[in-house]
Design goal:
Blueprint lengths: L2 E4 L2 H6 L13 E2 L2 E2 H8 L4 E5 L20 E5 L6 H8 L6 E4 L2 E7 L17 E3 L11 H5 L1 H11 L14 E3 L5 E3 L4 E2 L3 E3 L5 E3 L4 E2 L4 E3 L2 E3 L4 E2 L4 E8 L4 E2 L2 E7 L4 E2 L4 E3 L2 E2 L4 E2 L4 E2 L10 E4 L4 E4 L7 E3 L4 E2 L4 E2 L3 E3 L4 E2 L8 E2 L3 E4 L2 E4 L2 H13 L7 H15 L2
Parallel strand pairs: 1-4, 1-5, 6-8, 9-12, 10-13, 11-14, 12-15, 13-16, 14-17, 15-18, 16-18, 17-19, 18-20, 19-21, 20-22, 20-23, 23-28, 24-29, 25-30, 28-31, 29-32, 31-33, 32-34
Antiparallel strand pairs: 2-3, 5-7, 6-7, 26-27, 34-35
Length: about 400
């Protein structure tokens, strides 16, 4: 049976700020987003993603009249699994599938049954899953699951071993057949350690001279590791990304830059971000205590159960040179952070400033910065982008 991915309001709030500008299904974990994993695992079965009615990332009203009934809907924060899809396929219209009190899937026969609130865990129509389903239900799980997802993604996006020409001058430690180069990819004069995982360099991406890379590592299409970069895998970077300095266990979304010295660890950086030279984040508290992280759904800080937890930055945010972030910092959408000292470890969207104080980042200035950065990649800042910025600002004001 064909199926949809369905954005649950309850899940979207827990994944702030990344779900301000995308569905949970479009959050990358490893080489691929959840949507891409479902597509690759079950070709031609996924009919699309059904957003929340108020979703800023979907500027046009969703065409509910195009839904094919009975509609099987799987929560978009679920990691794909054949067991989950098999159980969901067995649902009858009106029935729902649960993991405890977490809604995993439902089958709808009409628009009323498409509503999340139409399904409750304590009814005769609710079925408890027999499988343990992994969920992307917190932002720190993005970086926590990179290593596991690399193994999944390498199977879904296979690329044969690519012998490196001797004249490229690389030093390989470990099995050389764990290095994979897509057409146009290049690696020059670097130390590549594959004993801990594969190194996958996608189409037209480049690792410049003097880099030290310990897998697993994924460099997306048209992305660059600048000279002397140190990578401690697992690290995954999207397309058109520039990286420099020292990076460990982090996920960097498409079109973002960390092009200079500075440490980034156990972190998640959204799209269209730019980290200024010598921007650093802490990923370990001085007392080695468990890290607490801001949860927008709870409106409070929440224990992560992790000792290592770094920076989580929403789309279109930027930092000035020498910016420092404390352990477990969350930065919202379109912020401009700069200055000496440590800014607070929860920064709302559209903020300008740093440790000495924050003021609202004017919408006109935020849009102009985005227009300039996107223009460098020949991507227009169009009406949909303008709607996104305005809608997110309105949503955040209402919090």
């Amino acid at each position: 049976m064909h199926f949809y991915l369905f954005d649950l309001s309850s899940a979207v709030a827990h994944l702030w700020p990344f779900t301000l500008s995308r569905s949970p299904a479009d959050i990358p974990v490893g080489m691929l987003s959840l949507r891409a994993k479902w597509d690759a695992m079950f070709p031609e079965k996924l009919l699309g993603v059904i957003p929340r009615p108020s979703a800023a990332w979907h500027p046009h009203p969703f065409a509910y009249d195009t839904i094919q009934y009975p509609a099987l809907c799987i929560a978009s924060q679920c990691f794909p699994s054949s067991g989950l899809l098999e159980e969901a396929n067995g649902l009858l219209p009106g029935q729902s599938l649960w993991q405890g009190d977490q809604l995993l899937a439902f089958c709808a026969n009409n628009l009323q049954q498409m509503n999340e609130e139409a399904h409750q865990p304590q009814t005769e129509l609710a079925i408890q899953s027999n499988h343990s389903v992994r969920l992307l239900d917190r932002i720190w799980k993005i970086q926590e699951h990179i290593s596991v997802e690399f193994k999944v993604d390498f199977a879904l996006k296979p690329l044969p071993f690519s012998p490196l020409p001797e004249e490229w001058g690389n030093r390989i430690i470990g099995p050389p057949d764990r290095i994979h180069l897509a057409p146009g990819a290049k690696i020059f004069g670097s130390i590549l350690n594959t004993t801990t995982g594969d190194i996958y360099v996608d189409k037209d991406a480049e690792i410049m001279e003097g880099c030290m890379v310990r897998g697993p590592f994924y460099l997306g299409q048209h992305s660059v590791l600048k000279m002397g970069t140190r990578i401690y895998g697992p690290v995954a970077a999207g397309k058109f990304v520039k990286l420099g300095g020292e990076i460990g266990q982090s996920q960097i979304f498409d079109f973002s830059n960390k092009g200079h010295e500075g440490y980034l660890g156990n972190s998640v950086i959204g799209s269209w971000c730019n980290l200024g030279a010598d921007t650093n984040n802490s990923n370990l508290k001085n007392n080695y205590a468990e890290v607490k992280l801001w949860n927008q759904a709870l409106k409070s800080f929440e224990s992560t159960g992790l000792q290592f937890c770094g920076l989580f930055m929403g789309d279109h945010s930027k930092t000035g040179i020498n910016t420092m972030f404390n352990t477990g910092t969350v930065v919202g959408f379109s912020c401009n952070i700069f200055g000496s000292g440590f800014p607070r470890n929860m920064i709302p969207s559209f903020q300008w400033g740093g440790a000495s104080g924050l003021i609202p980042y004017k919408l006109s200035a935020a849009k102009e910065t985005a227009r300039a950065m996107m223009g460098r990649r020949n991507i227009p800042f169009d009406e949909d982008q303008a709607y996104l910025f305005q809608h997110i600002l309105d949503l955040e004001k209402g919090q």
